[in-house]
Amino acid sequence: MDETKKKKKKTAECCGYPISIFFIVVNEFCERFSYYGMRAVLVLYFRYFLLWDDDLATSIYHAFVALCYLTPILGAIIADSWLGKFKTIIYLSIVYAIGQVTMAVSTIHDITDANRDGTPDNFTFHIFCKYFEFDFIFIFSVFILILFAIKNRFRHRGSRYPKREHWMDWADEKYDKLLIAQIKMVLKVLFLYIPLPMFWMLFDQKGSRWTLQATTMSGDFGAFILQPDQVQTVNPILILTLVPIMDRLIFPLIQKCGLNFSPLKRMTVGMLFAAMAFVAAALVQIEIDKTLPNFPSSSESQLKVVNIYNKTLNVTISPNKYLLIYSFESSADYMTLDHQDITVSLNTNPVITKAFSLIKGGRQTLIIPSNPTLMYLQEDVKSKPKEGKNAIRFVNGWTADLNITNLDSIEPSATSNYTLVSHGKRDFVLRHGEQWCEFSRKFGFGASYTFLIPSTVFSTDCESKTEVEDMKPNSVHMALQIPQYFLITTGEVMFSVTGLQFSYSQAPKKQAGWLCTNAVGNIIVLIVAELGKLPKQWAEYVLFASLLVAVSIIFSIMAYFYTYIDPAEIEAQIRKEQGLEPEEKEKETLEMEEKDEGQKNDQEVKKKQDIRFVKIRLCWNMLIYTL
């Protein structure tokens, strides 16, 4: 018999893994680099290029992420029923590349934005693809088996039928006992997965809500400027730091203290850390809200008055607003009015009176020029300038046309359109014929300014210009987001890494359910973003944190009653029962025990290898994310 046994061809290995693994790792590098790079700026693309509001941008972002973790079912069908795993990865990687090329082409100005104003003229097309990675056939067979078990149990109801230890045992008339035992293990783990989407509901908002939060903050770190989408790199950097610290220091130290810090307890603590991260985000948002302008509601209007007349004016705005405005100055702040039709009177000789109609939900400035009879309304920005830039404009109080750097010629008494300028020092040259002067201004993040140019601008070498701050710059620093990123990353290490280890150790098949928890979490965010409509962003953060705390309590109760199992031992026992005839048992008992022990050892080695690979893959992904 030994002579007839064919020796298995030994697979070439490197560092304990087959050589083919490293080809997959290279493919994974490219895929993750593409995915994370695109996802990091996706919500800002929706917000500032497509001009969607925060809620819609957040909803579409999370819909995309949810699809990324749901569409693997399609890839699994292709892999298991048609092409096989490796061909599926290769072919769908090509589809992925085509999608990325299509998306890149769609951003070329000459195709979708001919006037280069940042808004697509007629169409934008994108293909979001992701290659797929888990076993759909197993899920489908689980579903059919469960239906059969329920049907069989219903058919055999009554006292004359013997009771079964588990309701799934009613399927043993048609299905293999080993498969039934595996399904039991899977269902036991999947039951624990029910509360898990709430963690991902919070975690994936670091790419949407937290990125939008960063756009209202200052990214000036002195030596470098951090953009809102770049602050997400704090997460992968902390992952690369915390995974070895937790694995080699924190968890062993807890174990030496005699504390039973089981995987499910770690996951519960990870959920609580994520909740604390959102409490920290809420505190940061409260500080940001203190610095944000008080924008009008949809039924209100806001008005500011600018006087470039050469005398101080008393301005009366019906019915009961009275302002004293000096020459080349503005009113202190915007007035909020609950009516749109107003009458403005100036104490000139003779008195000038003029009626205006304001824009609902808008901000406007009343410009009083050198000829007050020509006073007019100018529409202002009513939200923070995009991408942390600064919106600036000029009012020409000079007696002739004025040319300003990077702007068109401005007529006398006219106001230029807003121009967006980045953070840092900017130089402006004012010119009329042979006359010119230059001034510099250092800008922060997210401010809005109106520069008033008097008739004496050239004689004073630009010193007589006046600056009106329409919107204050962002004063809350992005460094305040680091604590919430530290907390959410600590929660990720506790929850995600431990959850995968737990799944590997407690069930033969698990990734389908694990990926679906991520997808469901993003779907919940989508629903809340569209239906919640809380008036304050910090309140939404507190709501999410409260939900996760409640869910973590439920999960801890479920974990308390969970009994840990050894799938390898259960499978070996069932194989032993099924693989022998009664008369052969005594004869082959010793041989089977030795074989089972060998299989168990091999499975334990593979399981440890798989867990090690999970940690390596996570760190690898985080390194790619950082890049």
From TrEMBL:
<dbReference type="InterPro" id="IPR036259">
    <property type="entry name" value="MFS_trans_sf"/>
</dbReference>
<keyword id="KW-0571">Peptide transport</keyword>
<dbReference type="Pfam" id="PF00854">
    <property type="entry name" value="PTR2"/>
</dbReference>
<feature type="transmembrane region" description="Helical">
    <location>
        <begin position="131"/>
        <end position="150"/>
    </location>
</feature>
<feature type="transmembrane region" description="Helical">
    <location>
        <begin position="33"/>
        <end position="50"/>
    </location>
</feature>
<feature type="transmembrane region" description="Helical">
    <location>
        <begin position="541"/>
        <end position="565"/>
    </location>
</feature>
<feature type="transmembrane region" description="Helical">
    <location>
        <begin position="267"/>
        <end position="286"/>
    </location>
</feature>
<dbReference type="GO" id="GO:0006857">
    <property type="term" value="P:oligopeptide transport"/>
</dbReference>
<feature type="transmembrane region" description="Helical">
    <location>
        <begin position="185"/>
        <end position="203"/>
    </location>
</feature>
<keyword id="KW-0813">Transport</keyword>
<keyword id="KW-0812">Transmembrane</keyword>
<feature type="transmembrane region" description="Helical">
    <location>
        <begin position="56"/>
        <end position="77"/>
    </location>
</feature>
<keyword id="KW-0472">Membrane</keyword>
<dbReference type="InterPro" id="IPR000109">
    <property type="entry name" value="POT_fam"/>
</dbReference>
<keyword id="KW-0769">Symport</keyword>
<comment type="similarity">
    <text>Belongs to the major facilitator superfamily. Proton-dependent oligopeptide transporter (POT/PTR) (TC 2.A.17) family.</text>
</comment>
<feature type="transmembrane region" description="Helical">
    <location>
        <begin position="512"/>
        <end position="529"/>
    </location>
</feature>
<dbReference type="GO" id="GO:0015293">
    <property type="term" value="F:symporter activity"/>
</dbReference>
<protein>
    <submittedName>
        <fullName>Solute carrier family 15 member 1a</fullName>
    </submittedName>
</protein>
<keyword id="KW-0653">Protein transport</keyword>
<dbReference type="GO" id="GO:0016020">
    <property type="term" value="C:membrane"/>
</dbReference>
<dbReference type="InterPro" id="IPR018456">
    <property type="entry name" value="PTR2_symporter_CS"/>
</dbReference>
<feature type="transmembrane region" description="Helical">
    <location>
        <begin position="89"/>
        <end position="111"/>
    </location>
</feature>
<keyword id="KW-1133">Transmembrane helix</keyword>
<feature type="region of interest" description="Disordered">
    <location>
        <begin position="581"/>
        <end position="606"/>
    </location>
</feature>
